[in-house]
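Hi everyone,

Forwarding the result from last night's run.
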Amino acid sequence: MNADDNMLPTPYHEVNLVLQTLLDNARAVLGDYFIGMYLYGSLASGDFDPGRSDIDFLVVTSEELPENLILDLKTMHTRIYESGPEWATKMSGAYIPIDAMRKYSPTSPSCPLINKDEFLVARPDIDWVIHRHILYTSGVVITGPPLQSIIDPVRPEQLQEAVLTLLRNNWTSLLHNTDIFLGAGHQPFVVLTMCRALYTWEHGAVVSKRLAAEWVREKSDRKWTKLINQAMAWHYGDPPGDIGQSQEFMRYILKEVGLGEN
């Protein structure tokens, strides 16, 4: 089936082609387990930049998937990833049962999670508090029931708690690990993620990484201006910014939220 740009929700034809491929294949593999497909991330926030962004998707299923379907999904995603189109290599997403979509729970069932060429079955992390908020407020429905009918609103204090937990559990241990800066786009991703984390911590709200970065740039010491500007301007093929200063910036953000090193 060819992508019809009038039927798909992005203004980017090549993105629509990959979304149509994903939709058709997910429906074929899941059958009656398929409930809906949605977009979050930059395609939902209006911050999408073809030179730097990824495709963030959610597929909602009717229930937990049996092992044979999970294996079929893994094969499907490998085939799509290796199919040739550039955007097929820039997809991240999850297959979550509808009963687990209402609110985040650390004991929710494990489900397929995709990050580019990585396919694993695990419980979604607490960052899905933030993803749920984005889906509820600005998520894009490709097909399926309205997101507000399957997700509860996320309160500001829940967003703040989620950000603090993510920073404490996932980021403080990475302060001395330069490996997180390796790979195309990783260094600017770290800088912009830190900016959005601080914004959410202080405001109990989620904005695009660009808006959060502009806010941090205006409120913080001028020493971070060049680093933040480079992160906002980065596109695939550009060299990364200063890794040492990026680590120092992480320490600054962690200190701002009360997680400074002793």
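The beta strands are 34-40, 55-61, 91-97, 111-115, 118-122, 140-143.

Cheers,
N.
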